[in-house]
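Entry for 1-deoxynojirimycin complex. Fields follow.
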Amino acid sequence: MSNATDNWWRSAVIYQVYIRSFADGDGDGTGDIAGLRSRLPYLAELGVDAIWINPWYPSPLADGGYDVSDYRDIHPTYGTLADAEKMIAEAHALGLRVILDIVPNHTSDQHPWFQQALAAGPGSPERRRYLFRDGRGEDGSLPPNDWHAAFGGPAWTRVPDGQWYLHLFAPEQPDLNWDHPAVHAELDDVLRFWFDLGVDGFRIDVAHGMAKDPALPDLGLTEFSVLTAEGQNDHPHWDRDSVHDIFRRWRAIADGYPDRRVFVAEAHVRPGRLAHYLRDDELHTAFNFDFLKCPLEAGPLREVIDRSITGLAAVGAPPTWVLSNHDETRHVTRYGRAYTGVRSALLDQGAPSDHALGTRRARAAALLMLALPGGAYIYQGEELGLYEVEDLPETALQDPTWERSGHTIRGRDGCRVPIPWLGTTPPFGFGPPRSVPWLPQPQDWTAYTAEAASADPASMLQLYRAALRLRRAVPAFTGEAFSWLDSPQGTLVFERGAGLLCVVNLSDLPLPLPDACQVLLASGPVDDRILPTDTAVWLQRD
Ligand code: NOJ
């Protein structure tokens, strides 16, 4: 792809392919590369610029593939390296760029390095690639510190010889020691391996967690990050300043390729800290989780939008926007609840949701997101209006959160249910007839298939297609201009330059549209130039 399109990532719409659940070519119940290849034309027709594929490497799937046992191969369930190469070439031929997911904070416990570390014993060079420590207490039977794991329980597991190893996530995901030169060299090489194969970029998993305080001090009451008077972050394992050295090195690797290769950070950090990851010589973009988690209310949204745009402008980076992903409750369900933001799994899970209301709001949110300056992420199935499957049988749950929380938090499987493509009975074209998807699909997904949506002019899919077509056709969408216009409480109105307006009504009152404008696209019916509640519209001034 040419130099003229070098800045494609600044306003790209990137479609997230959760490969396990996207399309199953061989009928084993799990998505795969063959399935993805067969659906690339659908993605090109949708009008996205790139795909981001969740980890597809060999893995015991203790955490859905975020436990990698070989960074240079493909999980046999998904296909082969040759299939991956074909997929990349076909995507490129359709004008779609390909972004992979790199998991550098931890490996699988089945990774040869970890197996070697276990075998080599305490004090060995093999153990130094991970974070092994002796325990506390007289017999070392207490964990080395008080850190806790993201999926529940302590962040330390004891091995038979008595030492403990650190895992900020599941025990099957031992953390790498990023103070070890071999770890740097290995991941550098992994990046090059895939860049050489033609991938256009990487999403970096847990980018904010790779650097640890080598003293591994207790957390005490520290929850996220603590900034010192000098603006340094004192948290022992989240968002440490030393992590930026790693990303400078990675940026130099990406820039060593003549065409632009890019990074997007998964970094959960305090507002204001994200810009550090996106300095000129570091990463290109980062997910905007503040936007995803924000309640669908005008005041909080306006605040997040302002903070995102101005915060990143300081380092010349474009903002990005995202409504859903494979870790969060699908937004049709969230927006149908009394509280529409994200708090915690315990507070939010199972809260009653009105899907019709959530769908109306999700349509409005799509037009809001796709009108904002910068890049946007679409999570597979959101273009079909899928809701969270909250009643999966307990026996089907696979997210480690379910076990690690002592069966109190169901986890993230409800947003990972395989995609319905066509037909009237499961597997809805996800795999061949009579194949059994790895998570059961609801029977009412008959109405949500891509086939049904393609035939319905009022479907979510048609809205996304129309929005993405306009985003490409109207230059103001991909420019950087953005300004708020005065509007009544509970509404958002902004201009993107050249008379292009986006109006979102999240108030209880109908909102008259400005004069001398024509409607380019609306998320719901607009009669007599009145915008109903929970509706958004794109307008062009005459
Ligand atoms: C973030 C990923 O999105 C999530 O799915 C995974 O469980 C954790 N990182 C750990 O790798």
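NOTE: The first strand starts at residue 13 and ends at 17.
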